[in-house]
Amino acid sequence: MAKIIAYCGINCAECPAYLAHKNDDDELRAVTAEKWSKAYNSDIKPEYVNCDGCTMEGRHVGYCSKCGVRKCASAKGAQNCAHCPDYPCETLEAFLKMAPRVKENLEEIRANL
Ligand code: SF4
Ligand code: SF4
């Protein structure tokens, strides 16, 4: 499946919240809710597992619904952070430390700009 790159570089096309919403997949919602409930020590309901994708208007879940990178890039009108003249800013660097694999997606885009 083609990548759907979030502002921060995450590939939303691999995210269960995106896939569950896109395919209206109740089984994936249930499995993911159980997994996330254990991982984040909280009670996540299956109906919560729905996301339209980072750069789309609509529903976003968990960290992504409050993400500072998302808010910044959206306000700047950047396609994603790879296209931003301030790349990589402190906010993005702080996020990428938590998600090092994601940086590869942004670097790949930058290599082809
Ligand atoms: S923005 Fe949505 S689809 Fe993309 S990674 Fe975050 S929760 Fe998943
Ligand atoms: S300033 Fe940072 S977070 Fe904002 S769009 Fe640029 S690289 Fe992304």
UniProtKB/TrEMBL annotation:
Entries under InterPro entries matching the protein: DUF3795
UniProt-listed Pfam families: DUF3795
Highest rank taxon of the organism: Bacteria
Record protein name field: DUF3795 domain-containing protein
